[in-house]
Amino acid sequence: MSGTQPATADQPPETSQRTPVKAALASFMGSAVEYYDFFIFGSAAALIFPHVFFPDADTNAAVMSLATFGFAYIARPVGAVILGHFGDRIGRQKVLMFTLILMGVSTFAIGCLPTFDQVGWLAPILLVFARLLQGLSAAGEQAGASSLSLEHAPDNRRSFFTSWTLTGTQGGQILAALVFIPVVAMPDEFKFGIGWRIPFWLSAVVVLVTFFIRRTLHETPEFEAAKKNNQIAKLPLGVLLRFHWRDVLRVVLCAFIAAVSTVYGTLAISYGKTIGNLDESVTLWLVVAGNIGALFTQPLFGMLADKIGRKPVYIYGALASAAFMPLYLRSMESDNTLLQFALSLLVFSCAYAAANAVWPSFYAEMFSSQVRFSGLAIGTQLGFLLAGFAPSIVAAIGGLEPGGWVQISFFTAAVAVIASLAALTARETYRVPTHQLGHKVEQVTSA
Q1: Which one, of 329, 192, 326, 335, lies nearest residue 269 by Cα?
Q2: By the 8 A CB rule, do 30 and 173 touch?
Q3: For residue 190, what are the domain limits?
Q4: What is the pLDDT of residue 219?
Q5: What is the mean pLDDT of residues 153-165?
Q6: Is 120 left (phi over 0), alpha (psi -120 to 50) or beta?
Q7: Among 70, 130, 79, 82, which Cα is nearest to 105's?
Q8: From the CB of residue 64, how many other CB atoms can be counted at a distance below 10 Å?
């Protein structure tokens, strides 16, 4: 039987069932795996793949290589629908185990691919296919991890605990950069031969560690309570589009802010190397510095959002990113290394980190437990499409040419303003109990 009825003030799940620290650790490690894999791909797309998977004589090799980075974001909306459905139907933990294995296998496979010199255009085709599998995995990873950590967290500390999901992305990026920096310092013959493959193969180690952490984690109390009360939707997507379409659209627009991260972590690397004539290892160390800083600032921003609300912290992060990005890019054209590192920390650790820390709780709290996984996955992955293609889009309009900092800065400002305006329309939820989040409009049996 199914039917529609008003929201009910149902009782909260037992707090003894919550394991917030373990859930945060599992989310941290899962995000670390995802962004280790994504960052080594992004770094390789900027520095390695134009020489390995495309003809050396092709002047568009850099743009095509950056485009392969964006292909994962095409698969993400498809993966969001599929994985979101099962995440809301069978549970968060089971789907997160699947996404972990898929990401690990596809990343390891990239390290085994033949080059353009060996198989011609089949090489970039295989690269794109592996990248699409990465995208399918990523579509469910952050949404599932955010739902998991939020539903395990105490009501008054949801933003802090869910911030560790995105702090895991910084851990993954730091690890990836530390692995990749020695690779780019190698002689070209080794670097473009077997050297670039090593970081992709090493992902297997991170996956195994995360697998053993995540396999012992219990399902969330919110999901178990929904099963017990026959509140599992037979078709979560139908409920989502009927009753939550405004929230999905809001999340799509807010998720545009993720383009700041891909500009910072991928396009800026190419800009520093091409226009600023910076050493490749320096550009990677700039990213490492920003991410190390974010390891400390993001939990603090999460704590702040639990005190004053999600919206002010998120909007500050978006607008501050736009304000500081041109300064960071201009510093790359100078010889002042200290200034470059200071501005890298300012852009990422002190500005973007605020929005990055808050969005897992901010977006997830727009939905009830019935459709949280689906709503968060579909909304973010549609918004992340822009982030995925931001490097190639801005590069194609002159972002990697002299004076390209202007195009990059205007693009960053545009996405920050759109995300901020969308955030202003959202309801502030930091004082709403977890079991009352969203609007449970449909009660359906799980049979």
Answers
A1: 329
A2: no
A3: 18-216+236-430
A4: 82
A5: 94
A6: left
A7: 130
A8: 17
Question: Which tokens hold the place of 437?
Answer: 């989040």
At how many degrees (to 10) do helices 310-331 and 280-308 cross?
Answer: 160
Residue 107 backbone zone (phi > 0: left; psi -120 to 50: alpha; other: beta): alpha
Closest to 356 measured CA to CA, from 438, 426, 421, 295: 295
CATH classification of the domain holding 317: 1.20.1250.20
Residue 427 has a pLDDT of: 93
Structure tokens at 218: 């219990």
- Number of domains within the chain: 1
Crossing angle of helices 92-110/197-214, nearest 10°? 160
Q: How far apart are CA 390 and CA 273, in angstroms?
A: 18
Quick check: 441 pLDDT over 50?
A: no
Distance (Å, whole) CA 144 – CA 74: 19
CA distances from 266 to 44, 48, 156, 331 (A): 9, 12, 36, 17
Helix (H, G, I), strand (E, B) or coil at 368: coil
Q: Which residues contact 68 (CB under 8 A, 6 or more apart)?
A: 45, 49, 53, 124, 127, 128, 131
Task: Please answer whether residues 71 and 128 qualify as being in contact, where contact means their C-beta atoms are separated by less than 8 angstroms.
Answer: yes
Q: Does residue 9 fall inside a structural domain?
A: no
